[in-house]
Amino acid sequence: MSENHESIQHPFYEETIESKPIFQGRIISLQVDTVRLPNGETATREIVRHPGAVAVIAIVDNKMLVVEQFRKALEKAQVEIPAGKLDAGEEPEAAALRELEEETGYRARSIVHLQSFSTSPGFAEEIIHLYFTDDLEQGEVHLDEEEFLTCEAITLDQALQYIQDGRICDAKTLLAVSAWRIRTLTGSF
What residues are labeled active site? Predict the structure, then answer.
């Protein structure tokens, strides 16, 4: 993320003195920054760089589309809302439409941006752009070569049970279920 004038003026701003690249992967990179703290002392910050991602709350027939896939970092299968990383130069809305169809086989005729949020601001710059749609038509699943998942449409009660069972435990899907529940109860987000 680029620094803006507002953050530089913040009393807790940490000036970067040195930045060392440590790892460059296909999706993320890792760097270690030496920073000057507000009290004049120095410290190091390990920072994960990530291109950003999108996620979609997609509702069809009063059910939310979810995908189940194995997550190596957790060593277990997870149920999550459709999501994926931004490709270089890709606009978040276009990525959301692409990921939704690739993973679920549904195409959104319209989509609404709900919120963009940090996933782990203590060490990563990743931002997820969360979208909503209930305006869907059948398309085609186009999974990436290394992607293995199943898609299902679940009720709100099923989603809450999946949370209880630990099948849903990632932040974006927990947020999605909470937002969906609020919309179900109040009619809006």
Answer: 145
**Structural domain harbouring 28:** 5-49
Compute the C-alpha angle 43/45/47, nearest 5°. 170
User: The whole model's pTM is what?
Assistant: 0.91
Residues 124 and 166 in one domain: yes
Exposed, middle or buried: residue 99 (CB in 10 Å: 0-12, 13-18, 19+)? buried
DSSP type of residue 75: T
| 3-class state of residue 13 by DSSP | coil
Interval 126-179: pLDDT, tens: 999 999 999 999 988 888 888 899 999 999 999 999 999 999 999 999 999 999
DSSP state, 144?
-
> In whole angstroms, how large is the CA radius of gyration of the chain?
19
- The conformation of residue 187, written as its DSSP 8-state character, comes to S
Helix (H) or strand (E) holding 163: helix 156-165
Cα 87 from Cα 163, distance rounded (Å): 30
42 and 87 co-located in one domain? no
- 79 and 160 assigned to the same domain: yes
Structural domains counted in the chain: 2
Residue 98 DSSP class:
H
